[in-house]
Design brief:
Two copies of one chain form a homodimer. With about 575 residues, chain A is of the alpha+beta class. The first copy, chain A, contains 16 helices and 31 strands. The longest helix of chain A is centred in the first third of the chain and has 22 residues. Chains A, B: It holds the Pfam family tRNA-synt_2b.
C-alpha cells in the first residue's frame, strides 16, 4: 500500500471535542470521523484494525467450537414482547414502524432472536450448541461520548450457548471465559475479569472483562493482595461489626429541630453516621418501598435492582413520601411502618442503639434495635463499597479503579428459551427448555480500549497483532531518485515476504512522515535516506521503544521477521 | 468441521412458502431461516458462502485500488434533506426518531454519507479516490419475496468514486465495470451488463449486471446477434417507419359512440393501432401532463420518469382528466390542447393521417398530422419494446428474458458533491465539486443468484470458489470402527493440505448423508465404505456431473487437489 494513495487524513492539532485519549488519537491519526453524535465512520486504517480484531475473535470462537451465523438487525416487536423486554428496554431501544404500521425494533442484543433459531433444536444429543455473529447493534444512549467508547451504533461479537442443564451452562461459560482471556491477551487489552450485575439480561451470574483506563465509566473494586475483583455494582467488603452494647429497652423519640441530614444529626446529637439508619424511599415498579442503609453507607442502585428484580425504579418525590409516611426526608424512619415493604442492607442486621427518623418532622428516635423494632422484609447487600475497606476474601484494603467494560458474559438460564419456546427432549424423553448463556464483545470499543492501553504523547502504539500495517517504509528524500528506488526495493521485498507494509512515498518532508508514522502507531518504521545509504544502511525504528538500529538493506526482511516473531 | 457438530437443519420436503428455486433450496439445505418477511437469518453454511463472496469482491476492489471503509447505517435526516432525497425516497426508506425526537434514517444507500467524508479532500492531486464498504442496507420493500432476492435488510458492497471531472468518472466507471465482470465470473454468476435507468440516483448513465433467471423480476432486452443488451426501462428498438402518404389538410371530427379503447376504434373505424395516437394523462410532480404514444405501444413509466426528471408520478384520476380536458378516457387527445405540457414518444414524430380522441366524449379526430396539429413540448423515448422487434444496433429480432439484477453501477456526476459541499481545488486553483460514481452489489442476493444459476433436482451445486466446504467425507458405515478410522484419516489429510473439508460422522444411513451432501451442494464427496476399503479404494464423486471415480486412500489428497485446480 502506498501512503500517497490511501485516505488517512491526519490532523496537526488535537480536535477540541475529544475527551478520551482514544477518541483524540483515532480522530487525529485519521482513523475515524463522527457522522453525528454516537455514529462514527471508520476510515481505511480503522477498517484494517477492525478486521484484525474480528479475525482474532473468530479464531478463538472457532477454537471453542462456536459456529458463526448472521441474524437480522431489525426485529418484529412481537419477539421482544414475548420475553417481556419490549417494555423493559425502554428508551434505550430504537423503535420504528414499517410502511404497514408494524412495530419494529433495532437489535440491542440478540437473545430472543437466537432463541427463535434454537426452536429447531430437538434433542439433548445436539447439545451443546455455540452460536455467534458479528452484527451491528443499536442503542439509543442518553449521552454518547468518548469517541468509540460510548456510541449508538457498533459491531458486536455476540455469542449464545445452548445447553441441556445448568452444569452444561457452567461448562459453556467456562469455555467462553477462557476464550475471552485469550482474546484480550492477543488484542493487547489488559482485561480483568470481575463479578458483575446481570442488569436487564437476568440470569444467575455474569462476569465483566474490564480494561483499566482513566476515562473508563465503570468502577472496578479489587484486592491486589488476593486477586478479588468485582464491578462496583457487585463488590462487597468485610466490615468490622461495631459493638453496640446491650442497647435500650425501647426506641425513644427526641426533638431534632432543623436536622435534615446524617451530618446534622451526627454533629448535634452525638450520633455518628455508623450509628444511624438512613431511610431512602423508592418506587419499585410503582410500589413505594423503604430502603435502609447505615447512615455512612451510600446506596448502589443497581444492587437494589438486582436484589428486588424490579424492572422500573425511581426515587420517590417529597410529596409522595409525605403522603405515605407523614414526614419529609430528614426525619424518615421505618420503625413501626406498616403497609410498605422494607428492604435493609446487611450491615444493619443485628444492630442496636441506633438513631433514625421518627416520621414526624424534626423528631428522631434513639435506642432503635433493628431486628426488634423494624419490620424488615428483605435483607440484601445494597451499599456501595469504598476504597480502603477490607477485601471480603483476604481482608486487605480494597482499591477502586476506573475501567472500560470490554466484554461481558452471562449465565442466562432458561428465561429466553421458555419465553420463545425453545425446548428439546432430555434423555428421559421429556421436553425441557434450553439453558442459555450469552457472551459479548464490542469490536470498535475493543479498538478504542487498545488505544487507551497503548499510546504515548506522540500517538498510538498498536500491538503488532492488530496494527493496520506492521511496517512503514519512509523515503526520507522523495525527490532523490536513488533513495526512492532503494526504498521501493525494500518495500517490494517486505511485501513479497508476506509482511504488511506501507510505503510513505508522499512529497513531504521526512519530519512530516515520521510524525504520521508515529501518530498512526505503525509498529516498525524503516527509514531510507541518502546519508544512511551512503553507509550502506537503513534505519529500523521500533515505535514502542523508540529504539533505532541500522541494518543493511539486504538484511531488512530477515531483521523485520525477527522483530515480528 | 464435523457434520455432527454443525447446525445445518436440512428439511426432507420443500417448504410450502418458497417460490424461487434459491429460496426453496437455501431453506431446505439449512442455509437460511426467515425471521419475518424480508429479514433472514444466515445459518453457518450460509455465513461461510457469504464470507467467500465478500472475499472475492474485496480482492477485486483492492485490484482497482479501492479502499475499504465502514460508515454508519443510521443517519441524521438533515444529510438526506440536503440532497433532496429525504422526501424522494418516500416509503422505501425506514425512518425513526431517537429519544430526543431527532429524525433519523436507516441507510438504503450511502452517496450522501460518503460525500460527507469526501469533504476532507482538498485537491485534485488526491484524486481519484475509490472508497467502499460492506454494510447493511435497509429498504422497506412493499412486497418482500423470493427469499434472499427481495428483502428489507441485506449486506451491500457499495463503492463510490471521486474524480475531478467527467473524464475521470468515465475512467473510474470503466474500472468498476471491469471489476464487476471479473467478480461475477469468479462467483459463477452469468451476468450480462445492460444499459439501465438511473432511477432515484440521478446522473448521466448506469449499467446493470443481470443474471438470467426465470424468477427474475427484471426484463432484459437483448440481441443475440450483436450483443446489444438493455434493461426494459432503457431498451429501444429500430421500428420501420410506416408510410402515411400525404395526409389530410386538417383534422376532421367524427362520431364514435361507445368507443373506449384502441381496439374499439381499430375494429369499428378502420384505424389500426399503429395509426392511432394514445393519450395518457399523468400528474408529474403534481402537474397534469399529456403523454402520447402510438396506439399499439405500451408506456414504460420509468422512461417517463427519466425523460422528465419527475420525482413523483401518478396516473390522473378520471375526474381530474374530465376537469382538465372536458372528456373521459376513451375520447382524449392533444389536438388544440393548451395549458398542459405534452410529451410524445419518438415513434409519433412526423406521423400523418392519425386518429385520436377529440376531447369530447364519443367523438374522435382523423387526419391528424402530429407535427402540425399537436403542441408537443418534449419528444422522448417512452414506449416499452416488445420481443421480436428489430435490435436498434443490428436490426435482428430482440429477445426479452427475465433476470435478477446482481449489480448496478452509476455515473452520478456532481449532484451529491454539490449538495454536501464536497469540493476540491482544481489545477487552476478553483474550487469545483467532486464528480462521483457509485457501484453496488448485494451480497446475499448474489448468493441467491448463484443458486438460481447452479442447482439441479437434487439441490444446490455450488461453484468451488464459493462453496461452504470444498469436500465432504462421508463415512458410509458409522458403526464400523475401521471404516470410521479410515475416513478420519482421509479427513485429517485433506485438512492438513489446506482443503476445506467437512466429515459426515453422524450416526445416519449412508443414503441420508448422500442426500444432505447433494442438497447442500458441496462440490466433491469422498465416500469411505467397507466394500470399497476391502478393494483398497474410496469413491470421489463430483457434485456437478455426478461422476464417481475410485481412488486409493493414499491418493485422495492429490486427486482432490487436481480436481480443485
Amino acid at each position: 500500500m502506498r501512503w500517497s494513495q490511501t485516505f488517512t487524513p491526519t490532523l496537526r492539532d488535537d480536535p477540541a471535542e475529544a475527551d478520551a485519549p482514544s477518541h483524540r488519537l483515532l480522530l487525529r491519526a485519521g482513523y475515524v470521523r463522527q457522522l453525528t453524535a454516537g455514529h462514527y465512520s471508520l476510515l481505511p486504517l480503522a477498517v484494517r484494525v477492525r478486521s484484525k480484531i474480528i479475525q482474532i475473535v473468530r479464531e478463538e470462537m472457532a477454537r471453542i467450537g462456536a459456529q458463526e451465523m448472521l441474524l437480522p438487525t431489525m426485529h418484529p416487536a412481537e419477539i421482544w414482547q414475548r420475553s417481556g423486554r419490549w417494555e423493559l428496554m425502554g428508551q434505550e431501544m430504537f423503535r420504528l414502524k414499517d410502511r404497514r404500521g408494524a412495530d419494529l425494533a433495532l437489535g440491542m442484543t440478540h437473545e430472543e432472536i437466537f432463541a427463535t433459531i434454537a426452536q429447531e433444536l430437538s434433542s439433548y444429543k445436539q447439545l451443546p450448541q455455540q452460536w455467534y455473529q458479528f452484527q451491528t447493534k443499536f442503542r439509543d444512549e442518553p449521552r454518547p461520548k468518548s469517541g468509540l467508547l460510548r456510541v449508538r451504533e457498533f459491531t458486536m461479537k455476540d455469542a449464545y450457548s445452548f445447553d441441556i442443564d445448568q452444569a452444561g451452562l457452567d461448562a459453556s461459560f467456562e469455555a467462553y471465559h477462557g476464550a475471552y482471556v485469550r482474546i484480550f491477551e492477543r488484542l493487547g487489552i489488559p482485561a480483568i475479569p470481575v463479578d458483575a450485575s446481570s442488569g436487564t439480561m437476568g440470569g444467575s451470574g455474569s462476569t465483566e472483562f474490564m480494561c483499566p483506563a482513566e476515562i473508563g465509566e465503570d468502577l472496578v473494586v479489587h484486592s491486589p493482595a488476593c486477586g478479588y475483583a468485582a464491578n462496583i455494582q457487585k463488590a462487597t467488603s468485610r466490615l468490622p461489626k461495631p459493638d453496640d452494647g446491650p442497647g435500650e429497652p425501647a426506641p425513644e423519640p427526641f426533638d431534632t429541630p432543623g436536622v435534615r441530614t446524617i451530618e446534622d444529626l451526627a454533629t448535634g446529637y452525638d450520633a455518628s453516621g455508623d450509628r444511624q439508619i438512613k431511610t431512602l424511599v423508592y418506587l419499585l415498579e410503582g410500589r413505594l418501598t423503604l430502603v435502609l442503609l447505615r447512615g455512612d453507607h451510600p446506596l448502589n442502585e443497581q444492587k437494589l435492582v438486582d436484589a428486588t428484580g424490579a424492572t422500573s425504579i425511581r426515587a420517590a418525590a417529597p410529596e409522595e413520601i409525605q403522603d405515605a409516611l407523614g414526614a419529609l426526608p430528614g426525619s424518615l424512619g421505618a420503625v413501626g411502618v406498616t403497609g410498605h415493604p422494607v428492604i435493609a442492607d446487611e450491615a444493619l442486621r443485628g444492630r442496636r442503639g441506633m438513631f433514625t427518623g421518627a416520621n414526624t418532622d424534626d423528631v428522631h428516635l434513639r435506642g432503635v434495635d433493628v431486628d426488634r423494632d423494624i419490620p424488615v422484609g428483605t435483607w440484601a447487600d445494597l451499599r456501595e463499597v469504598a476504597a480502603g475497606e477490607p477485601c471480603p476474601r483476604c481482608g486487605e484494603p480494597l482499591r477502586i479503579e476506573r475501567a472500560i467494560e470490554v466484554g461481558h458474559i452471562f449465565k442466562l438460564g432458561d428465561r429466553y428459551a421458555r419465553a420463545l419456546g425453545a425446548e428439546v427432549l432430555d434423555p428421559d424423553g421429556k421436553r425441557v427448555p434450553l439453558v442459555m448463556g450469552s457472551y459479548g464483545i464490542g469490536v470498535e470499543r475493543a479498538m478504542a480500549a487498545i488505544v487507551e492501553a497503548h499510546h504515548d504523547d506522540k500517538g498510538i502504539v498498536w500491538p503488532v497483532a492488530v496494527a493496520p500495517f506492521q511496517v512503514a517504509v519512509v523515503i526520507a528524500q522523495s525527490d532523490d531518485a536513488e533513495t526512492a528506488a532503494a526504498a521501493e526495493e525494500i518495500y517490494a521485498g517486505l511485501g513479497a515476504a508476506g509482511i504488511e507494509v506501507i510505503i510513505d512515498d508522499r512529497a513531504e518532508r521526512a519530519g512530516v512522515k515520521f510524525r504520521d508514522v508515529e501518530l498512526t502507531g505503525i509498529p516498525f518504521r524503516i527509514t531510507v535516506g541518502r546519508r544512511g545509504l551512503a553507509e550502506g544502511m537503513v534505519e529500523v525504528t521500533t515505535r514502542a521503544t523508540g529504539e533505532t538500529v541500522k541494518v543493511p538493506p539486504s538484511e531488512v526482511v530477515a531483521h523485520v521477521e525477527t522483530l515480528l516473531s
